[in-house]
Amino acid sequence: MSNQFTSTRIDDDLNLLSDTLEEVLRSSGDPADQKYVELKARAEQALHDVKDRVSQASDTYYVRAKQVAYRADDYVREKPWQGVGIGAAAGLVLGLLLRR
């Protein structure tokens, strides 16, 4: 799943949640009103779904970041001088960018 697709899907979910909650707030608020009960249930389900998706997305990003860090660590341990060179080049580029 691409980041663009995930971001768009989460945005759509948040919009759906917002629309549902606005509809709940506009309703009479009478617990005896069947429409209010249905809207409240939809809002609670939408909130639960969005929380699950956001949690899954953050877990996925955490795992990916951890894998990248491990790969970088392994690379530097296997080829220390190349790691030093890459670090120096990155520092030079960052220094030039910050100077401007």
UniProtKB/TrEMBL annotation:
Transmembrane segments: none annotated. It is a single-pass membrane protein. It is found in: Cell inner membrane. The keyword Cell membrane applies. One of its GO terms (molecular function) is ribosome binding. Its main location: membrane. Residues 10-59, 72-98 form the DUF883 domain. GO terms for cellular component: plasma membrane. It comes from the Bacteria. This is ElaB protein.
